[in-house]
Amino acid sequence: MIIAITGLRGSGKTTIGGIIAKKLGAKFYDLDKEIEKNIKTTIQDFVEKKGWEFFRKTESKTLEKVIKKLKTKKHTKEKITILSLGGGAIIKEKNAKFLKKNCFIVYLQDTPKNCTKKILESNKKHKNNNRPALTRQKTLITEMEELYKTRHKIYKENANFILKRSDDTEKDTEKLFSKLKRSAVKILLS
Fold first, then answer.
1. What is the pTM of this model?
2. ∠ at Cα 168 (80, 17), nearest 5°?
């Protein structure tokens, strides 16, 4: 069973996904890291050179490749795998259908304000801005608000479970862990 985690950038997909994987004794994959392995550069550099449209095509190919790899006999002995998606991976209809067919999808729903705060904190901590702008908005908060308006419905429609984020990552992780344990047991026993 592949548990795919989606949501806006800054919603905690990688952080919560990593914690959940440890709690479940599962392997953890980050789609952005898998893409960077394939393209042999950072996503930021790739997008600056080739553009978002070409990146989305690369993202789709990598997503399909990763999920197919996780569905092989070698990987199916791992009962559960956690896959953190990029915030835009599910917005392409083709990807959404592929994910729904092959994964249990969790949407980490957070406000644009909270996501912006977390992104800025992460950028400061790591001394970088690891993604070029996705929209023509002048500020990160207005960009995140625009992305929320265009993506929330897509995330929601494709999710098997929605976790409304709070300011307490530990509490949110426990809530998701509890839900996944119940869901995973049902799915694995069926």
1. 0.89
2. 20
Integer Cα distance of 84 and 50 in angstroms? 23
User: Does a structural domain hold residue 190?
Assistant: no
Domain extent for 71 = 2-185
Q: Domain total for the chain?
A: 1
* Position 124 pLDDT exceeds 80: no
Q: Which DSSP letter does residue 110 get? A: -
Distance CA 146, CA 45 (A): 23
How far is the C-alpha of 47 from the C-alpha of 55, rounded, in Å?
A: 6
Q: What is the CATH number of the domain that holds 117?
A: 3.40.50.300
Is the pLDDT at 185 greater than 60, yes or no? no
User: Do 25 and 180 form a contact (C-beta atoms < 8 A)?
Assistant: no
Taking 3-state DSSP, the helix, strand and coil percentages for the chain, each rounded to the nearest 5, stand at 60, 15, 25
